[in-house]
Amino acid sequence: MAVLPHHRPVECKTIDGTTIAGWLYTVDGPAPAIIMSHGFNCVKEMTLPEVAEAFQSKGYNVLLYDARSVGASGGQPRNLLNPLQMAEDLSDIYTYVASLPSVDSRRIVLWGMSFGAVVSACSAAIDRRPKAIVMVCPLFSYVQPAKAEKAYAQLIKDRMSQLRGNEPYSLAPFTPKGDNPIGMGGAGGSGGVEAYNLMKAASELGHPDFSDRITLQTYQKLAMFRPKEHLDMIRTPVMMVIPELDDISPPEEQREAFSRIKSPKKEYWAKSKGHLNIATGEGSKEMVAATIDFFLAAFEGKIE
């Protein structure tokens, strides 16, 4: 199958008129398509283009997009990360991808990393059209109990401030020590420091439209987000990629969440890999190959 050069910029609309911007990697079709959802506050230029190109080389169309309010996509306030809204948006993105002439609309799958993995799962809990889901190092928990009361008080203080006409308060997702007000994403440990360094590197590389800030109200959305509760609603086959050395989303929590999935499923244990290097470097080619094998089996109904 002939592969066209890399990608082109595209846009689509959600039902409320918000513009979602992405990169579309196409192949001669009609061919299957993969919709890739990125990690927390990440833009499409970070890390995943290499993975998208690998999928494209295997004969898949790929849409790698910026989530609502992030990067080149529309949405206000900027960098307000609302996972349930993003899950709804993903259904509209799916509809757009299904309309593309190079896409076989009967073979569209979801692939999400970290935060994007649970967004994809929650979308598929309601939208039964995707033929399969791959969840890579999914992030399930967000608020450390010891930080909850102080963080919640800050959220309400900010809401009251906005009602007086002030701008939404924003802050960096991670401090240089790898911490944040709710204790998410490995905060207070090596995982939080890794996440800080990822955001710092994105800023230094000058990725277009990237902002190393999120609105404080993101934390209210996360505090009310219960992605595990949606997993038994999924009916399509699921592959979960669990990094052995994940220090941002504990592997044991990923495995516990995996046990809740009632649809046909497969676990991929990524030995010697961590949360932020799971998609690149040594072992990434094997992960892509296993993902393609999973998609082919899902298309043929052979996942048990």
How helix-rich are the residues, as a percent range?
25-40%
What sort of overall outline do the alpha carbons produce when their principal axes are compared?
A: globular
How much of the residues is beta strand, in percent? Answer: 15-25%
Distance between the termini: 29 Å
**SSE pattern:** EEEHEHEHEHEHEHEHEH
Number of helices: 8
The largest β sheet comes out as: 8 strands, mixed
Derived from helix and strand composition plus strand pairing, the structural class reads: alpha/beta
Output the strand order for the largest sheet. Answer: 1-2-4-3-5-6-9-10
Rg over CA atoms: 18 Å
Explain this structure.
- The chain has 304 residues and is of the alpha/beta class.
- The chain contains eight helices and ten strands.
- The protein has an eight-stranded mixed β-sheet, with helices on both faces.
- The longest helix has 19 residues.
- The mean pLDDT is 95.
